[in-house]
Amino acid sequence: MIVALETSSPNCEITFLKEEKEILTIFADTHSKHEKNLITFFDWAFKYLKITIKEIELIGISIGPGNFTALRVGLATALGIAYPHNILVKAINTLDALYFTSLFYFSYLKDKKILVVSDAKRESLYAALYQNEEKIGNYQLVAINKLSTIFKEEEIDFVCGNALLSYPQLFENFKKINIYYPKAKIIGLLAKKAKEAQKLDSLFSLSPFYLKEPDIRK
């Protein structure tokens, strides 16, 4: 069984999957107070599904970028469960998860250039560009007044991510996908794919992915 955790956004979500089938999702809009809910979610899920922790083979976890404290809470929870029980772990970049969440609901956009933008606060955005299930270039931290010089409107087919909610005026002329946050289910499916490709993570090397201030494009 696969368990996936998404804590990078104001939403706290865990999903249990058997192979690729979603069997349970628990969701709460906790405004980043995830530490109060995650353990309760797990306890309730184990009782509801009548399973034990020994049945979990893989944990997928959103690794950021996102709210740093919330990411650390999610990662600490995943590692706290995985380490004593020798459970495999795969960390998934939040922007990747957002992109593949969009494709899950709108698969016909696979060949389109999709810009994923997430609010990084302080008038800046986390951003990455994708096409055909591949990332084009690097993950970036971009000041909002520099966005149009880095990502040309005519070169972007669609935009998704919660920056659409934070800065609607910035994206008035872009075609939008109404996907704002990644789904835990997609994180689980991406983790499963990584396991099949033998691209899992070491428990001792994981830390939140956080683009620092010097990475802002001037």
Automatic annotation (TrEMBL):
Residue ranges of domain Gcp-like in the record: 31-135
GO biological process terms held by the UniProt record: tRNA threonylcarbamoyladenosine modification
Source domain of life: Bacteria
Pfam families: TsaD
Keyword Transferase attributed: yes
Keyword field: Transferase
GO molecular function: transferase activity
InterPro entries xref list: ATPase_NBD, Gcp-like_dom, T6A_TsaB
Coiled coil ranges: none
Name of the protein described by the UniProt record: tRNA (Adenosine(37)-N6)-threonylcarbamoyltransferase complex dimerization subunit type 1 TsaB
Organism per entry: candidate division WOR-3 bacterium
Lineage: Bacteria, Bacteria division WOR-3
